[in-house]
Design brief:
Length: 570
C-alpha cells in the first residue's frame, strides 16, 4: 500500500527551482485554497527571494500560476495568511522596503527583517491591495543590537521574522514575531518571541487602516525567553487559544527541548516558560527547527516536532507529531502531549522537512511542508489521526491478531517468520514490524529473545545496566537499537521493538511509553538501509521472557503503548 507519509508522495505546490519555504495555507470563503510560499532562484537568504501567492480549486491537485506579493524585486519573505471574519484574506510578510543591498551593508542576509508588511484580498485571493505596514515596538533586545547593525546609509535596520500561524480572534488580529540580535558569523545569535496585536484591524480596511493601533506584547522591555537556566534562543513561537482563554505557545530553543509559555491576559504578561512534557511526565525533545501547534477542536491540538534533542538545526527527518491535551497548570490550563508518531519521512536521511501549515477541508486534515527546495501538501490519514485521538482519550483498543505468537506454538517448534525489508518500490509499499515481549524477573545481561539462522535474524537482550538492545542482522548487514529504560530490575515489563522499515527507523516502546533515549539525544535510530531480508528460523525465548509475538506491520506508538501498558497482557 502506498505510504502517505513518504514526503515525495505529497502534492507539489508551485515554487521556484532554487528555494522554497513556509507554505502557508487557508481556505477562502468561495472554497478555494490560497497558499503563500517564500521562494527564489538562489539559496535561503539570497537577494531577490520573494513571496508568491497561488490558489487551488481541487484541494491541491492543481494550482494557479503564482504571483509575487511584491513587484519591486527586493526581498519579501516568511509570509503567513489568515482569513478575517469578513472573509477578507490577510497576508503578512517581511519586506526589505528600504532596499538595503546586503553586499553594500555587509550583511549575510536581510530577508528576516526590514518592515512587517501586509496586503489584503477582498476577492478570495484573486487580487491584492496595496502594501500596508504594521508597526512593531522596539524593545530591550533591539536596544542591545550592535550600533553598526541599527542602521545603514541612513536607513534603519530591523531584525525580526515570523513563520508561525497568524490569526483573528473576532476582529482582533494577532501575529507572532521573533526579534533577534544579528551577529556576522551567527546570524540569529539571540532571540525572543513577542506577539503583535491589533484590535479592530479588519474594520480598519474601510479607511485604509489609518486609525488602527498596534501593540507589541508582552508589556515591558523583554519578550518570551527560554525557561530559567535555558539558552539564548527562544524563537518561532506558535500559538493556540485554550478552552479557558489562555494563550499558549510552543517554541524552539537550543536546549534540546521545546518550550512553552502561557498568558492569561491575551499576551500582556506571560507566565514563566516551561519545557514541554508528555502526559507521563517526560520532557519532549526537539532541535532548533520549527515546532508548531494547531487546534483540532474539542480541546485537542496537533503538534509537529522532531523528537530528538540535538541542539542545532540538523536532522529534520523523520518528522514526528503528537496530540496535545489540556491539563491544569500552576495558574491556568497548559498543554501536555501523547505518544509521538512518525508523521512524514524522506528516504534520504539528509533531507528534512519543516515549516508546515495545517488545514481542514471536509473530513480531512492536510499538512504542508518544505525541505527548502520543494513545497508539498499531504492529506493526513484519518485512521492515523483517529488512533492518536482515541489514545489520549483512553478509548483505544487493539483487536488485531499478531502474525506470530509464541504461546500458540509448541516450544519445540518455535519457527519465527522471515522479515522482508526490501520492496520493489519503496514509495508504493508500507513495510514494518513490531515484536512484543513479556518480561518478568530479568537481570542485567539476560537474553530475552533470539530468532533466525546462521545468516542472521533478530536478537534482544539486556546490557550490563539492564537496558534492552535489539540487533537485527542478515548475512551482509546489521544494526542495533538501544533502549534507555532499566528492564533488568527484576520487575514485570512489556517491550515492543518498533521497526518502521519504510521510514528506516527503529525504537522501543516500554511499559506504555515510547522510549525517548533517556540522557541520550533520542530513543530512535536509523536502521541499516542495506538490510534486505532478515532471516527467519528457530526462535528461543530467554528464561525471563514469558511470551513474544510479532505483528506484520509497525504498530503506531499509540497502539504499542496500549499493548505494553501494565494493564495489558501480551
Amino acid at each position: 500500500m502506498k505510504d502517505w507519509r513518504h514526503v515525495v508522495n505529497g502534492l507539489a505546490i508551485p515554487c521556484e527551482s532554487g528555494y522554497a519555504d513556509q507554505p502557508s495555507l487557508v481556505k477562502a470563503w468561495n472554497g478555494a485554497w490560497v497558499c503563500s510560499v517564500t521562494t527564489g532562484h538562489g539559496s535561503e537568504g539570497a537577494q531577490g527571494q520573494y513571496v508568491n501567492i497561488t490558489r487551488s480549486f481541487d484541494k491541491g491537485r492543481t494550482w494557479t500560476k503564482p504571483v509575487s506579493i511584491e513587484p519591486d524585486g527586493w526581498e519579501s519573505a516568511y509570509s503567513s495568511l489568515a482569513v478575517a471574519p469578513s472573509g477578507r484574506i490577510y497576508c503578512f510578510y517581511c519586506h526589505n522596503l528600504h532596499h538595503i543591498d546586503i553586499r553594500d551593508a555587509g550583511l549575510g542576509r536581510y530577508d528576516m527583517g526590514g518592515e512587517y508588511c501586509f496586503r489584503v484580498s477582498a476577492d478570495n485571493g484573486s487580487t491584492w491591495s496595496k502594501r500596508y505596514i504594521a508597526t512593531i515596538r522596539d524593545m530591550g533586545i533591539d536596544a542591545r543590537q550592535e550600533e553598526r547593525f541599527k542602521s545603514f546609509d541612513g536607513k534603519p535596520l530591523r531584525f525580526f521574522w515570523n513563520v508561525s500561524r497568524i490569526w483573528f480572534d473576532g476582529d482582533t488580529f494577532y501575529s507572532p514575531i521573533i526579534k533577534y540580535i544579528y551577529k556576522p558569523r551567527d546570524v540569529i545569535h539571540t532571540s525572543q518571541g513577542v506577539l503583535l496585536r491589533c484590535a479592530g484591524l479588519d474594520a480598519g480596511y474601510m479607511d485604509g487602516f489609518a486609525n488602527v493601533k498596534w501593540e507589541t506584547l508582552p508589556d515591558g522591555e523583554e519578550g518570551i525567553c527560554t525557561p530559567e537556566g535555558g539558552g539564548r534562543v527562544a524563537e518561532e513561537q506558535s500559538y493556540v487559544t485554550l478552552s479557558d482563554g489562555t494563550l499558549f505557545c510552543a517554541f524552539r530553543t537550543i536546549d534540546g527541548h521545546p518550550a512553552g509559555a502561557a498568558s492569561l491576559d491575551s499576551g500582556r504578561v506571560f507566565e514563566p516558560p516551561q519545557y514541554l512534557r508528555r502526559l507521563e511526565g517526560r520532557l519532549l525533545k526537539h532541535n532548533r527547527a520549527a515546532t508548531f501547534i494547531w487546534p483540532l477542536g474539542e480541546n485537542r491540538y496537533f503538534y509537529w516536532f522532531n523528537n530528538q534533542g540535538e541542539k542545532w538545526f540538523q536532522r529534520r527527518n523523520p518528522v514526528w507529531c503528537a496530540i496535545g491535551v489540556e491539563v491544569p497548570g500552576k495558574t491556568g490550563l497548559t498543554v501536555e502531549f501523547g505518544q509521538p508518531e512518525i508523521l512524514l519521512y524522506h528516504a534520504d536521511p539528509r533531507v528534512g522537512s519543516s515549516y508546515p501549515d495545517l488545514l481542514k477541508d471536509g473530513a480531512t486534515w492536510y499538512i504542508t511542508e518544505t525541505e527548502k527546495r520543494n513545497a508539498r501538501l499531504h492529506p493526513i490519514d484519518n485512521t492515523f489521526l483517529d488512533t492518536m485521538l482515541r489514545a489520549v482519550d483512553g478509548t483505544l483498543t487493539i483487536d488485531e491478531a499478531p502474525a506470530w505468537r509464541s504461546s500458540e506454538i509448541p516450544a519445540s517448534d518455535l519457527n519465527f517468520p522471515a522479515m522482508p525489508f526490501l520492496s520493489a518500490n519503496p514509495r508504493e509499499n508500507t513495510i514494518g514490524y513490531t515484536l512484543l515481549m513479556d518480561v518478568d524477573g530479568a537481570s542485567p545481561g539476560d537474553p530475552l529473545f533470539q530468532a533466525g539462522n546462521a545468516n542472521g535474524g533478530i536478537t534482544v537482550r539486556l546490557d550490563g545496566s539492564g537496558k534492552p538492545t535489539a540487533i537485527i542482522s542478515e548475512e551482509m548487514a546489521n544494526c542495533a537499537i538501544e533502549g534507555s529504560a532499566n528492564v533488568g530490575d527484576g520487575k514485570p515489563h512489556r517491550l515492543a521493538v518498533q521497526l518502521d522499515v519504510s521510514a528506516n527507523i527503529g525504537w522501543f516502546v516500554i511499559d506504555g511509553s515510547t522510549d525517548d533515549g533517556g540522557e541520550g539525544v533520542c530513543g530512535w535510530r536509523f536502521l541499516n538501509s542495506a538490510l534486505q531480508v532478515v532471516p527467519g528460523g528457530p526462535a528461543e525465548l530467554g528464561r525471563r521472557c514469558q511470551a513474544a509475538s510479532l505483528y506484520a506491520r509497525c504498530l503506531m506508538d499509540a497502539e504499542a503503548a496500549v499493548l505494553t501498558s501494565p494493564a495489558c497482557a501480551n
